[in-house]
Design a protein that fits this description.
Elements: E1 4-5, H1 8-11, E2 15-16, E3 26-28, H2 34-38, E4 43-47, E5 54-59, H3 73-78, H4 82-85, E6 89-92, E7 95-98, E8 105-106, E9 111-112, H5 122-150, E10 154-156, E11 159-162, E12 168-171, E13 175-177, H6 179-183, H7 187-195, H8 198-208, H9 211-224
Antiparallel strand pairs: 1-7, 2-8, 2-9, 3-5, 4-5, 6-7, 10-13, 11-12
Protein name: SapC protein
Pfam families: SapC (PF07277)
Organism: Caulobacter rhizosphaerae
């Protein structure tokens, strides 16, 4: 992938299509997205296959290529992960870079990246904001997860599903926060989580598990159709 640093002279006529969640079943998210995500879909921790480190992700479907919220219009519009919104864009030394081969870019269709005066258009200003949020959010979220691990609050979770067509599905490699272990923390540790704003993140994760049955119902509706 060859990246190009964005500049008005070279990319004045470049346009972008909307970012798409189509066929996306699991997306990495950062802590600032937890509360919004939890109202729409379950949030799990899982491990990076290369590093073995935990990261947080929002689940939109149970299998690769499956987004059960695609046709649940209000749900999909309610939460578009930053990591999806920045498709094709990257932070680079000197500014914002793009993958010119990414399918969302074209010369004339979609939202312009620059105005006629060469200044960033609203679409590009939004991307700059998104990249800034991700740049700050990834290390913040890593620190949150590391604190959960240090306090022994992370536990594996079995997600076993049965569907109306008789098929069953078991999801492996997923983790959540143990509210039982949270309740056993000493007062100092619990107060520290509260003061750092991490209790809200924990309860958002725990509450998001109520979205698993919702996704299962959407899958049954799709099977019936």
């Amino acid at each position: 992938m060859d990246l190009e640093l964005l500049n008005a002279e070279r990319h004045l006529g470049l346009h972008q299509a909307d970012a798409s969640l189509e066929r996306t079943h699991f997306v990495q998210i950062v802590a600032s997205e937890f509360v919004t995500a939890a109202a729409t879909c379950p949030i799990f921790l899982t491990k990076n296959s290369e590093t073995g480190r935990f990261y947080a992700g929002a689940m939109f479907g149970f299998e690769p290529g499956e987004n059960l919220l695609e046709r649940a219009g209000a749900g999909r519009r309610g939460f578009l992960p930053l990591d999806v919104e920045r498709q094709g864009y990257f932070l680079a030394p000197g500014g914002v870079a793009i993958d010119p081969g990414h399918p969302r870019f074209s010369a004339g269709r979609g939202a312009a990246l620059f105005g006629a005066d060469g200044q960033p258009a609203p679409a590009l200003r939004r991307i700059q904001l998104v990249l800034g949020q991700l740049s700050a959010g990834v290390p913040e979220t890593d620190a949150f997860i590391q604190s959960l691990v240090a306090l022994k609050l992370v536990e594996p979770i079995d997600v076993d599903l049965s569907f109306d067509d008789g098929r069953s599905l078991s999801l492996a490699g997923l983790y959540t926060v143990s509210l039982d272990a949270l309740g056993e923390l000493d007062d100092a540790a619990a107060l520290d989580l509260f003061r750092q704003g991490r209790l809200q993140l924990i309860y958002a994760m725990a509450g998001s598990l109520r979205q698993v049955p919702r996704l299962a119902n959407l899958k049954n509706e799709r099977l019936a159709a």
